[in-house]
Amino acid sequence: LAHGFLVDSFDLARLDEDDFRHRHPYASTETYGKLSQLRAALQSIAQDHGNTVRDLAIAWTLMQPALTGAIIGIRNPREAAEMLGGVGWRLPSREMSLISRLLKDLEC
User: Fold this and answer.
1) Contact 55, 86 (CB under 8 A)
2) CA dihedral (62, 68, 72, 76) positive or negative
3) What is the DSSP secondary structure assignment for residue 14, as one 8-state letter?
4) Of these four, 28, 54, 73, 75, which has the most CB atoms within 10 Å of its CB?
5) 62-80 burial: b if 16+ Cβ within 10 Å, else e
6) Could you list the pLDDT tens digit for every one of the 108 residues in the chain?
């Protein structure tokens, strides 16, 4: 989820001024703009299925043939429960291809 930059509700302007993400390379004007466009495209796919971008990221990751699992950072029990939305979600091949193209076009 790109240090939170791809989370549905992410807004760089709303972060505390001391937040490390203000200094992250993803916060540069050009890259942040690209990530915002990617987030919007991913939100559209996720919302079509009644899910979040977080769920989509987990589902996409778990569907990668070279992977057998995913390590997901959580901060509390609520976040742990919320992470279950992407487990077991099987994305159609057309959406897997679309996401792969979106990521390739990002080039951050």
Assistant:
1) yes
2) positive
3) G
4) 54
5) bbeeeeeeeeeeeeeeeee
6) 888 888 888 999 999 999 999 999 999 999 999 999 999 999 999 999 999 999 999 999 999 999 888 888 788 998 888 888 888 899 999 999 999 999 988 875
The residue among 99, 84, 89 whose CA lies nearest residue 59 is 89
Among candidates 104, 79, 63, which has minimal Cα distance to 7? 79
Q: What is the rounded CA–CA span in Å between residue 51 and residue 88?
A: 12
Q: Number of helices (H) and strands (E) in the chain: give both, helices first.
A: 4, 0
